[in-house]
Specification:
α1 (about 20-30) packs parallel to α2 (about 45-55), α1 (about 20-30) crosses α13 and α5 (about 120-135) packs across α8. The chain has 15 helices and 14 strands. β5 (about 110-115), α5 and β6 (about 140) form a beta-alpha-beta unit. The strands form 2 sheets. The chain has a 7-stranded parallel beta sheet, sandwiched between helices. It folds into 2 domains: about 10-145 and about 360-390, Rossmann fold, CATH 3.40.50.720; about 150-355 and about 405-410. With about 425 residues, the chain is an alpha/beta fold. The radius of gyration is 21 Å and the shape is globular. Helix content is about 45%, strand content about 20%.
Length: about 425
């Protein structure tokens, strides 16, 4: 951690936004009462109302400080200098994220966020990773539902295969079964923001499977057939027919970065490849869904009037599913990994959480930050620079379990 004493242990930036508020509420209700923390945002009156609401949740703890800040370099630099860890929930990150990262790196403040915007992540990796390492700063993007479940489940599968068979992993496939709650306004604005911020060429490069990896990709061929790619579906036992999952575009890059960070790829295995899908049931439905989404994305990039219309129709910033519906939601992912041995051996790990994925994102980013603040000698702490959820290892898994996330790991065959 930083050697200089700071006013706060942790600051939540963007606390009056939809996910930021849920993050602050989780800290207020569930995190140790001696944590020195603050809520930060641009609107002082909204922060004051949030502070009153938080006090109603738990009046018997250290109440958060209030930090009114504009999203400019000077204000953000002053904010970052006050804390050991800054959690940013201010999206779209392609639009608002870089000044926050820059302020943290220059202030020697550890940075966590909930982005799922891989082009932004690659941009920050190229610009700030080396300086962050030099300054002893951790940059931990993708610390929410994008991409903790995929990264941690793959890590658990690799660990189980290593312990059981003593070999690496040839292939890991993560499948979404359930993700309750529709997209928030921020999520819907992200696609438009990425298109307006980054060129097609840069975005295409960022979405390559190993774009975030610190080492070159393995030479082993992939396992997805040309026909499956054309039909936008694949049959995977024991899940059945699966199809493209939009979140895969961020999770694949992060998991492959974890592969490269763990012993230069040797721990996961020199043939390791990761894929991600969602349950679909029927190939025709998969085909229609995939190509409809692709058509919309193409129209957003190539047709400015269509993009303008979509922006006009977006719900107001900071909106999302009401908390009264959270009890009806569930988050469930399962990962199957194939050991690099003959005969074939497979391991399955699953993650189950009863509640909203947006609330879970707040849980995950806070627990990841606390793993750094309070935890032991994890790989992420050793490495510095841009790390991944998997580099927090079993310490983060244990914290997630204590927060109500259920894990199961078993041998399939």
């Amino acid at each position: 951690m930083t050697s200089v004493s700071r006013k706060y242990d942790l600051i939540v930036l963007g606390a009056t936004g939809y996910t930021g508020r849920l993050t602050a509420e989780y800290i207020q209700e569930h995190i140790t009462t001696d944590l020195k923390w603050a809520i930060a945002g641009r609107n002082g009156s909204k922060l004051s109302r949030l502070a009153d609401d938080l006090k109603g949740i738990n009046a018997d703890r250290v109440q958060p400080g209030l930090e009114v800040v504009e999203l400019n370099r000077d204000d953000l630099q002053q904010l970052a200098q006050k804390t050991q860890v800054l959690i940013s929930t201010v999206g779209p990150f392609a639009k608002f994220g870089e000044p926050v990262v820059e302020a943290c790196v220059k202030s020697k403040t550890h940075y966590f966020d909930i982005t799922g915007e891989t082009p932004f992540t690659l941009d920050m990796l190229q610009k700030y990773h080396d300086l962050a390492k030099k300054n002893g700063v951790v940059l931990a993007p993708h610390s929410g539902v994008d991409s903790v479940p995929a990264d941690i489940l793959t890590y658990l599968c690799v660990q189980k295969i290593r312990q059981t068979y003593g070999v690496g992993v040839r292939e890991s496939i993560n499948v979404l079964h359930e993700l309750g709650g529709g997209p928030s306004a921020g999520s819907l604005a992200t696609m438009v923001s990425l298109i307006e911020t980054y060129s097609f060429q840069f975005t295409h490069c960022a979405l390559r499977p190993y774009a975030l990896s610190p080492i070159p990709p393995p030479k082993a061929a992939g396992t997805v057939s040309l026909l499956d790619r054309l039909l936008a579906s694949r049959y995977i036992p024991p899940f059945g027919v699966v199809t493209h999952f939009p979140q895969a575009e961020c999770d694949i890059g992060i998991v492959h970065r974890s592969w490269g960070l763990y012993e230069q790829g040797k721990y996961y295995g020199d043939k390791f490849r990761f894929y991600e899908y969602q349950i679909i049931g029927r190939r025709l439905k998969a085909f229609l869904t995939h190509y409809t989404v692709s058509l919309v994305r193409t129209a957003l990039r190539l047709l400015p009037p269509f993009r303008w219309l979509v922006k006009r129709l977006l719900p107001p910033s900071g909106s999302g599913p009401p908390k009264s519906e959270f009890a009806n939601y569930r988050v469930f992912f399962a990962t199957v990994a194939t050991a690099d041995c003959e005969p074939t051996r497979r391991v399955m790990a699953s993650l189950n959480y009863k509640g909203s994925p947006y609330y879970l994102t707040g849980v995950l980013v806070v627990q990841a930050a606390l793993t750094l603040l309070e935890g032991g000698d994890t790989l992420g702490r050793k490495l510095k620079g841009m790390v991944t959820p998997a580099t927090w290892g079993m310490e983060l898994v244990d914290r997630m379990k204590q927060a109500g996330v259920e894990f199961r790991v078993s041998l399939l065959d």
